[in-house]
Each structure stands twice: as structure tokens, then as C-alpha cells.
């Protein structure tokens, strides 16, 4: 095998290793996000929540579900597309706003990955 062919094979292998290393944490992030959808039950009605928003005001009390407006339970209920779903469509096929959202998601994932690998140990 010639030297240039060996160099190309080595660089292709290193690219595959880097791609797998990049993909693994992203898959772990999406798996942990899926587990967050199953939230534990909230506090019982009548429970006082000590948030201390105002100096002299009273702390809010948890109400029955029927006493809250209906739209409150729909906030955040719709599922947005994942990074992989948007990438599978192709960047050229996305609208301007969707492509901006995709790049924002990719940048956020890259920052999270960098922060998790470069965490300071106390």
C-alpha cells in the first residue's frame, strides 16, 4: 500500500471515530430529554409555595386543576422537531426560520458537549 493511500485510510478512520464520538453524546441528550417528559405529580392542592416574590405579600397556594385556565395545560405540550428530524429533511428544504432554529439547536448541543467534556473537577 502506498503512503498516500495509507494516509487516506487513516484519516477516513479517524473521521469515522470523530463522527461516532460526536454522535454519542447527542443521542444521550435526546434520551435524557425523553425521560423528562414523564414528570412526577406536583404538590397537593392547598400547599403553600414559599417563593417570596414580594416583601409583604403572601406566598401562592396551589389550586385544584379545575381552577386554572385550560390553556395553561397546553403550554409546552406540543412537541417540536428534533435535530435529527430537521437534518433528515435537509437544510435546503427548510424555511429560513426552521434553518435558523436548526443551527441554534446544533450550536446549543455543541456548547453542551464542550461543557460536559471540559468540566472542572473540584
Short description:
This protein has a domain at 79-122.
In words, what does this structure look like?
It contains 3 helices and no strands. With 122 residues, the chain is an all-alpha fold. It has a domain at 79-122. The longest helix is centred in the N-terminal third of the chain and has 34 residues, at 3-36. The radius of gyration is 23 Å and the shape is extended. It starts with a helix and ends in a 5-residue tail after the last helix. The mean pLDDT is 77. This is Large ribosomal subunit protein mL54. InterPro entries: Ribosomal_mL54. It comes from Cafeteria roenbergensis (Marine flagellate). Belongs to the mitochondrion-specific ribosomal protein mL54 family. One of its GO terms (molecular function) is structural constituent of ribosome.
Number of strands: 0
Largest sheet: none
**Number of discrete helical segments:** 3
The topology string of helices and strands comes to HHH
Rg is 23 Å
Distance between the termini: 49 Å
Please identify the structural class as seen in this structure. mainly alpha
In percent terms, what proportion of residues is strand? Answer: under 5%
Q: Helical percent range? A: 40-55%
Shape: extended
Which parts are unreliable, with pLDDT below 50 for 5 consecutive residues or more?
none
Average pLDDT rating: 77
GO molecular function: structural constituent of ribosome
Keywords: Mitochondrion, Ribonucleoprotein, Ribosomal protein, Transit peptide
Subcellular location: Mitochondrion
Organism: Cafeteria roenbergensis
